[in-house]
Amino acid sequence: MHHAPAFFDVAKLTHLNGEYVRALSTEAFVEAARPWIDPESAPWHPEGVVPPWPAARFDDAVFTAMAPLVQERIATLSEIPAMVDFLFLADPVFDEQALTKAITGDERAGSILAAAVRVYAQCEFSAEALHAETLALGEALGYKLRITQAPIRVAITGRSVGPPLFESLVALGRAEVLRRLEGALALLEP
Asked: Please, what is the Cα angle at 179 between 175 and 180, to 5 degrees?
């Protein structure tokens, strides 16, 4: 017998919660997420939790389209607002480290963002087409997809990690994507 004190394993609980969240149907996940993403329409909401976007900017259809992609990447429902805030804010909130690494501190960023603006302005605007076009523009510039996606992702989401890039682009729409890419390009101007 051991005389070790009992302890509460938060990491294991978080993992189990993530398994439960991923097992929900999309409809159940959207309803479970509502207190964190749209508290005004939820029957309850966690005390002190306010989404980082104005309530008028929340679009239920956009969140529902992105929900399955978010659902597979979180362990707790409280992680949702940080994962989707870029969809409902007028401009992304940049993580300074990601901005420096992918855009302002990378000499390749300007050519990648400029090429993305040209290509995205005229290509079919579906996740598959955007993936193929981004892959092609990266190859034309001599970069792998991972390198090509980095400044585009940060320009669009403000972070280097988030939901799948091409589905996020489609959810935002062509006009908003082009506006954000051009805004990121403006950060590179002296």
From this structure: 120
